[in-house]
């Protein structure tokens, strides 16, 4: 087949009537050469489209089949309120119906997991069905959108449309709407995505009703701007890209059987034809995975198949359908024929013994079965890991390794080699990316979620690194700064607590440095919209190092536990004073959560800390009573922080307060209400508690479990997060801590309290159950700080709420240069600064001494120009107390005098002010253009969604080729010489904007020619006085 755009011709392969019912949906099978369709009366059927023969047909519902999805093992049928799972042969597997699945509107198979199906219901919710578990695993409420007609997905976003003419771009993790593209003034009939292009068709509502639009809308997803509309010769109801032919090739179809083909580059040249059918209108279409076949279903049960090949293929890699074995026909025997002996008729032989279906009487009555005793050989090789015993499988090298037919003691088989500590070797990779270099000692008895993650050799952590390897939680993890190892774990524990998160996200002031503002920026950096991400804390650390508290903690020495406790105390004391300040009166009016709303009548937030004193504990005193004895004012706060202060001197008291028995109360007994075991240690619906003495015998005082709820007088508090120090399992974990971890609720999935918990171990995260999270083995895991939040809070907003960065940040802060005549920037300069417009950004870096041996890049100058190339930001950043190792003048254009307030004549400001300016542009949906923006954002420590910026480094690069410098791109694309002697961030930003605009005007073929010329030129110097090597 010739796949050039000018030679593609589609023709009708066949038109046949396979059903007497109107078709409601049609779908090509991506795994077999089958075409599935559903009818308005609830039947599902399939045909072999290239042979025009029926394969299967079976009834599923009593009403219309709204959608069909096909995965490798199942065929999924969706009706108004039901979700049916069938085999391809028509055997039913399961019917799923939940309260959230009412009036299902559309469905979609998730790209990252083919066994997850996303459904949209009229209850303003997105439901996720897990086909492996065959149940609903997630519900996301969408209060902003009333309906959703179609769901599609590309590598970056999930797209939905509504009946108001908008196509919504949603985050893949949270399903929150990032932006809306207004395509039509009425309803969106259909849309499709190919590469960076989005195409839609729809209608317009007016006072006379609705009128179909005679055009197609096309959007560029890189800039989120519409391209010129494509006028159609008839009103389109369906539109599709055909990317296997060309990225610009598309088809649109009307409901009255008219079909047209065209390209985005030549939209006026259209190839039109008419499908000859006996029907009134087309009801559904689908395109095969190879784009060689297009199927149409109509209102009288007719299927039309169009193809552009003489030998079409539906799937490139498919397997043949399974057909039933042919029935062997025996000659009939007449009942009147007495000459045929009866012994020629085969019968199933009967056995005089009991058959396998006959159960012994002792198994037919409800009773608690006694487990078989474990042999001494297994017990001698048993190793314990967090209350679970592991033993080597004596039959692991035999065909019996998966079976349990004969007792172990009757099998003579060599035992797997184990480590000296008794644990089995496990070569499987884990979620936290722990490398093979981790020493295998007693650490192999520690859960891998708790171990310290190790980066591969010659690797460094950045915000744009491969986070999928280290982060499996759906939340943002933080890079641990080894100079201050106590900071990241505390921030990670504070962030999931919504009261604290809202408190700091609604604080902005003019003080610099301000730790409350830095926590605000840090929490925004950990936004749920990022999904699995990794963030840095370097801006917060830079501000914290300017406080005397940092020096005191560094000089105090002590253990990691002491440093964490001191940091929490000081951070609450410092921020308690800072929260009294605000940016201006307008920002103050927007603030909903104040310090008094969270910490009540406490004079300082530091008073919400309770250091447990076990000397005042008496027999029978509970945790809440002990807290009230130690700090009676704590109950006035909605958030309290407990320092357990575990020590060997009070082990028995600690064990009595933090009962180990509460671990088992998280796990439901499988017998439920019918359990008759008086010694059962699991949780029962009746609230029956286990008898600890009989169930476990003597308690191990080295194990405790943190209580999930505590009660102080008449106030109930719920566990939200906790910080632990980890050891190696040999030495005292308090005195010889290896690292700190945080464990917190996954506030994205508040469905199951026992499952949705996350452990943060440095930059690596992973899910963990609540019993495992808060059961502590004091040999290697010791709690340091536990955060509780009041269960019932009056007049407190419990939804995510953050304040907007005010526009005044551009002109409010003075120039720090002492010799400057203009202390403040003119306000009128920003009057024409419109939201959602294009800006170009470039930054220059300098090298700063982090420690004696570590040097890092910091922002030295940052510049932003608007779409008219007018400079709106050109700030030099004051370094503060850090020592500059290298100004990198040759590539940055920065000299020492530029950053000195006494000698500079530049616009000098602090990193906080520059950060707020960029953050304002980000949160007001400005589209960034630049060269190497990923590196700029990484050094600035700000996260920008990929859809919000266009990086010429990535755009102007061929696959498997090195990245090109801006100097070469400007020479080829613009015939312009830049960066001759040194770099200038304003000039680089303007040049990147010009390169991008030139790039937008070129076709894909022209861009490839330009780039190939650059790669093949081998020019080392790009000077204006030298002859140009490229025409």
Automatic annotation (TrEMBL):
Molecular function GO terms recorded: nucleic acid binding; poly(A)-specific ribonuclease activity
Gene3D superfamilies with a match to the protein in the record: Cysteine proteinases (3.90.70.10), Ribonuclease H-like superfamily/Ribonuclease H (3.30.420.10), YVTN repeat-like/Quinoprotein amine dehydrogenase (2.130.10.10)
Annotated Gene Ontology cellular component terms: P-body; PAN complex
One Gene Ontology term from the biological process aspect of the record: nuclear-transcribed mRNA poly(A) tail shortening
Domain named Exonuclease: residues: 837-1005
The protein, known as: Exonuclease domain-containing protein
Species name: Strongyloides stercoralis (Threadworm)
